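Structure in, sequence out. Go:
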Protein backbone atom coordinates (compact mmCIF):
# COMPACT_ATOMS: atom_id res chain seq x y z
CA UNK A 1 0.00 0.00 0.00
CA UNK A 2 1.20 3.49 -0.79
CA UNK A 3 0.07 6.19 1.60
CA UNK A 4 0.72 9.86 1.24
CA UNK A 5 0.43 12.19 4.22
CA UNK A 6 -0.96 15.60 3.28
CA UNK A 7 -0.64 18.58 5.58
CA UNK A 8 -3.87 20.57 5.63
CA UNK A 9 -2.86 24.02 6.80
CA UNK A 10 0.28 24.64 8.81
CA UNK A 11 1.33 21.51 10.71
CA UNK A 12 4.51 20.67 12.67
CA UNK A 13 6.64 18.73 10.17
CA UNK A 14 8.38 16.77 12.92
CA UNK A 15 5.03 15.35 14.05
CA UNK A 16 4.11 14.55 10.45
CA UNK A 17 7.39 12.65 10.05
CA UNK A 18 6.57 10.74 13.24
CA UNK A 19 3.19 9.73 11.76
CA UNK A 20 4.94 8.62 8.56
CA UNK A 21 7.29 6.36 10.52
CA UNK A 22 4.46 5.01 12.71
CA UNK A 23 2.28 4.06 9.73
CA UNK A 24 5.17 2.15 8.13
CA UNK A 25 5.75 0.27 11.38
CA UNK A 26 2.14 -0.84 11.76
CA UNK A 27 1.18 -1.58 8.14
CA UNK A 28 3.41 -4.18 6.53
CA UNK A 29 4.64 -3.71 2.97
CA UNK A 30 3.58 -0.10 3.04
CA UNK A 31 5.33 2.91 1.60
CA UNK A 32 4.46 6.16 3.26
CA UNK A 33 5.56 9.57 2.07
CA UNK A 34 4.87 13.14 3.07
CA UNK A 35 3.40 15.32 0.31
CA UNK A 36 5.71 18.27 -0.18
CA UNK A 37 2.95 20.84 -0.64
CA UNK A 38 0.36 21.66 1.95
CA UNK A 39 -3.32 22.08 1.18
CA UNK A 40 -4.92 25.30 2.33
CA UNK A 41 -7.68 24.69 4.89
CA UNK A 42 -10.93 25.31 2.96
CA UNK A 43 -12.52 28.41 4.47
CA UNK A 44 -16.05 27.26 3.71
CA UNK A 45 -15.54 24.27 6.02
CA UNK A 46 -15.44 26.69 8.96
CA UNK A 47 -18.49 26.91 11.19
CA UNK A 48 -18.45 30.30 12.88
CA UNK A 49 -20.96 29.36 15.58
CA UNK A 50 -18.94 26.30 16.61
CA UNK A 51 -15.47 27.73 15.96
CA UNK A 52 -14.62 24.40 14.30
CA UNK A 53 -14.18 22.96 10.81
CA UNK A 54 -16.56 20.43 9.25
CA UNK A 55 -14.46 17.32 8.89
CA UNK A 56 -16.39 15.77 5.98
CA UNK A 57 -16.06 18.96 3.96
CA UNK A 58 -12.25 18.75 4.10
CA UNK A 59 -12.20 14.95 3.76
CA UNK A 60 -14.11 15.10 0.47
CA UNK A 61 -11.46 17.36 -1.06
CA UNK A 62 -8.11 15.86 -0.06
CA UNK A 63 -7.97 13.03 -2.60
CA UNK A 64 -7.94 15.41 -5.56
CA UNK A 65 -4.71 16.99 -4.23
CA UNK A 66 -2.78 13.72 -4.56
CA UNK A 67 -4.67 11.61 -7.13
CA UNK A 68 -2.06 12.10 -9.85
CA UNK A 69 0.60 10.61 -7.57
CA UNK A 70 -0.25 6.93 -8.01
CA UNK A 71 -0.95 6.39 -4.31
CA UNK A 72 -3.58 4.16 -2.70
CA UNK A 73 -4.48 6.27 0.32
CA UNK A 74 -4.22 9.85 1.50
CA UNK A 75 -4.10 10.85 5.15
CA UNK A 76 -4.75 14.51 5.80
CA UNK A 77 -3.22 15.94 8.97
CA UNK A 78 -4.47 19.26 10.27
CA UNK A 79 -4.14 21.38 13.36
CA UNK A 80 -7.63 22.85 13.17
CA UNK A 81 -10.40 21.45 15.37
CA UNK A 82 -12.76 19.13 13.46
CA UNK A 83 -16.39 18.21 14.00
CA UNK A 84 -19.20 16.23 12.44
CA UNK A 85 -22.82 17.36 12.98
CA UNK A 86 -23.86 15.07 15.83
CA UNK A 87 -20.60 15.13 17.81
CA UNK A 88 -18.83 17.87 19.76
CA UNK A 89 -15.60 17.07 17.97
CA UNK A 90 -13.79 14.27 16.18
CA UNK A 91 -10.13 13.23 16.34
CA UNK A 92 -10.48 12.19 12.71
CA UNK A 93 -12.73 10.83 9.99
CA UNK A 94 -12.32 8.44 7.07
CA UNK A 95 -14.09 7.00 4.08
CA UNK A 96 -14.99 3.46 5.16
CA UNK A 97 -13.95 1.86 2.94
CA UNK A 98 -12.28 4.41 0.70
CA UNK A 99 -9.10 6.24 -0.11
CA UNK A 100 -9.14 9.31 2.12
CA UNK A 101 -8.79 9.91 5.85
CA UNK A 102 -8.07 12.93 8.01
CA UNK A 103 -6.93 13.49 11.58
CA UNK A 104 -6.71 16.63 13.70
CA UNK A 105 -3.85 17.23 16.11
CA UNK A 106 -5.82 19.92 17.95
CA UNK A 107 -7.21 17.70 20.73
CA UNK A 108 -4.22 15.36 20.76
CA UNK A 109 -2.01 18.14 22.13
CA UNK A 110 -1.39 18.12 25.86
CA UNK A 111 -1.65 21.93 25.77
CA UNK A 112 -5.34 21.50 24.90
CA UNK A 113 -5.83 19.93 28.34
CA UNK A 114 -3.76 22.57 30.15
CA UNK A 115 -0.50 20.60 30.27
CA UNK A 116 2.80 21.65 28.73
CA UNK A 117 3.87 20.69 25.21
CA UNK A 118 4.95 17.06 24.92
CA UNK A 119 5.88 16.31 21.31
CA UNK A 120 6.65 12.65 22.02
CA UNK A 121 3.17 12.11 23.43
CA UNK A 122 1.65 14.07 20.55
CA UNK A 123 3.37 11.80 18.02
CA UNK A 124 2.26 8.69 19.92
CA UNK A 125 -1.37 9.85 19.98
CA UNK A 126 -1.24 10.99 16.34
CA UNK A 127 0.07 7.61 15.18
CA UNK A 128 -2.82 5.86 16.98
CA UNK A 129 -5.42 8.09 15.35
CA UNK A 130 -3.69 7.86 11.96
CA UNK A 131 -3.60 4.04 12.06
CA UNK A 132 -7.26 4.03 13.21
CA UNK A 133 -8.42 6.18 10.29
CA UNK A 134 -6.34 4.31 7.70
CA UNK A 135 -7.87 1.14 9.17
CA UNK A 136 -11.31 2.56 8.34
CA UNK A 137 -10.25 3.20 4.73
CA UNK A 138 -9.47 -0.53 4.52
CA UNK A 139 -13.05 -1.20 5.62
CA UNK A 140 -12.46 -1.99 9.29
CA UNK A 141 -15.15 -0.89 11.73
CA UNK A 142 -14.82 -0.12 15.43
CA UNK A 143 -13.54 -2.85 17.71
CA UNK A 144 -14.77 -3.59 21.24
CA UNK A 145 -11.28 -4.26 22.57
CA UNK A 146 -10.22 -1.05 24.39
CA UNK A 147 -6.55 -1.86 23.67
CA UNK A 148 -7.08 -2.27 19.94
CA UNK A 149 -6.30 0.71 17.72
CA UNK A 150 -9.75 0.34 16.13
CA UNK A 151 -11.45 1.10 19.46
CA UNK A 152 -13.49 4.31 19.18
CA UNK A 153 -11.89 7.17 21.12
CA UNK A 154 -14.50 9.25 22.83
CA UNK A 155 -11.88 11.12 24.83
CA UNK A 156 -8.14 11.52 24.99
CA UNK A 157 -8.07 8.93 27.80
CA UNK A 158 -9.41 6.32 25.36
CA UNK A 159 -6.64 7.24 22.94
CA UNK A 160 -3.99 7.01 25.65
CA UNK A 161 -5.35 3.66 26.81
CA UNK A 162 -5.33 1.97 23.41
CA UNK A 163 -2.24 0.79 21.58
CA UNK A 164 -1.11 1.82 18.11
CA UNK A 165 -1.56 -1.71 16.76
CA UNK A 166 -4.50 -3.94 15.84
CA UNK A 167 -5.84 -6.73 18.04
CA UNK A 168 -5.46 -10.24 16.64
CA UNK A 169 -8.92 -10.26 15.09
CA UNK A 170 -8.52 -6.85 13.38
CA UNK A 171 -4.99 -7.70 12.33
CA UNK A 172 -6.26 -10.71 10.37
CA UNK A 173 -8.76 -8.46 8.59
CA UNK A 174 -6.03 -5.91 7.78
CA UNK A 175 -3.84 -8.60 6.24
CA UNK A 176 -6.77 -9.73 4.07
CA UNK A 177 -7.64 -6.16 3.08
CA UNK A 178 -4.04 -5.28 2.21
CA UNK A 179 -3.99 -8.10 -0.31
CA UNK A 180 -6.78 -6.33 -2.21
CA UNK A 181 -5.21 -2.84 -2.22
ZN1 LIG B 1 -13.30 5.34 14.06
ZN1 LIG C 1 -9.59 -4.98 17.18
Amino acid sequence: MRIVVLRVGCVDLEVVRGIQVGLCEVFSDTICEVFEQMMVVPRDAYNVARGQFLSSSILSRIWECVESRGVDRVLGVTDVDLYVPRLNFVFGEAECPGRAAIISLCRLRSEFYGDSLDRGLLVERSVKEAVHEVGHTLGLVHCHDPLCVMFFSNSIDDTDCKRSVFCEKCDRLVIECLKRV
